[in-house]
């Protein structure tokens, strides 16, 4: 394999080892952005990644709220799939991998983002930019998860 690929594999293994207690695998075949988003969210907010396989719940805040974490490395919208249990809170991150920066695009109650979704659907569905903007506008004061003190 080319040296640059071997360095990527080495870096991947280092990231997996660093976050091994969270049981995230940072799979290079499609889940990588989501796992990176979860790791970044834990650095930004005082949340702990769930070690169980609760679909729809990635972490828990210190106040007990369940948290779903979504991330995009494009200008895409958050994608959701049908799950049995929804999180109390949603963190949606936009990651610019070339520049090594990210932005919190949403930090609030998950139900506000999902309120226009059909009651039942299959596969994955994106939330529209309009629905995301409306959720931000309608978000109750002080409903955001606080950022970690640095």
Automatic annotation (TrEMBL):
- Quick one: where's region Disordered? 122-150
Q: Which domain of life is it from?
A: Bacteria
Compositional bias (Basic and acidic residues) spans? 134-150
The DUF6998 domain covers 7-141
What is an example of a Pfam family matching this protein?
DUF6998
Which InterPro entries does this UniProt record tie to the protein?
DUF6998
**Name of the protein described by the UniProt record:** DUF6998 domain-containing protein
The protein's organism comes out as Rhizobium meliloti
């Amino acid at each position: 394999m080319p040296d640059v690929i071997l360095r990527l594999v080495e870096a991947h293994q280092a990231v997996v080892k660093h976050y091994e207690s969270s049981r995230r695998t940072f799979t290079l075949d499609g889940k990588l952005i989501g796992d990176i988003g979860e790791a970044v969210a834990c650095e930004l907010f005082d949340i702990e990644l769930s070690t169980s396989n609760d679909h729809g719940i990635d972490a828990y805040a210190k106040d007990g709220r369940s948290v779903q974490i979504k991330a995009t490395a494009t200008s895409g919208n958050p994608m959701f799939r049908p799950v049995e249990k929804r999180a109390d809170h949603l963190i949606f991150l936009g990651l610019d991998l070339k520049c090594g920066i990210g932005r919190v695009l949403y930090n609030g109650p998950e139900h506000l983002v999902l309120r226009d979704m059909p009651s039942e659907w299959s596969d994955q569905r994106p939330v529209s930019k309009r629905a995301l903007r409306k959720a931000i506008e309608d978000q109750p004061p002080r409903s955001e998860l606080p950022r970690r003190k640095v």
